[in-house]
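Chains adopt folds. We examine one example:
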Amino acid sequence: MLKRIKRIIFFLFLAAVLIVLGVSLFTIFFDQAVIVRRGTIYRVPSEQKIVALTFDDGPSPDWTPKILDALKKANIKATFFMLGKHAEEYPEVARRVAKEGHEIGNHTYDHHVLIYYKREELDKEIRDAQAAIYKATGVTTKYFRPPKAWLTGDEKKQVREMGYEIILWSLNSKDWVTFHDKQITSYILRNVRPGDIILFHDSGGVFRPEGGSRKQTVKTILRLAAKLRERGYRFVTINELLNLREKNGKP
């Protein structure tokens, strides 16, 4: 009987390990945003060779300044989807993002997955983030990006009713996995198309939205900028990308 119990425990443990491994591999190698793109803006097809760089989870006192330095060196304006909590904790970094002419979006206050939120909870999460971002930067955001990309259809409707455009992405750098900058650049160059929105992070590790190393992200910016410009691409903000869509008469 004892031997049977031990065997059951072993197989339960093995099953748990396999599940965790499967979820980890799914998260690392599959872009979850593909599943929930309906009703969002994730790229704007264009005849012009343009792309938009976006950064999530900041501001970070360690990595956002380094990323800003790299963007300045590469002469790129990007869009930063900030967490309200981080804007409160590091207002001077948030102010620098705005001061240097980058665009700012709302990435919620706490970076919780929203698919189980009640209507009033979602409203508070977004408004608290907006209040914190405005206090730090003086910017009223009009773009929203949900953590992990997850939103239900009803939540998307609610967010739009609050006056936000929901912005996802078409290319995911997976820089939080700490791939080498050459690997990240190579992946993007193989898959990039005009009008793509590219996801990076200026904070966050594998298991939480703060910490982690963005060393490879910083190096990727300069490498990617040079390679894409060789191909005739230029870099725009989300606002510029959407203005182009409107000029072309696309919904």
The longest strand covers residues 50-56. Residues 2-29 form the longest helix (28 residues).
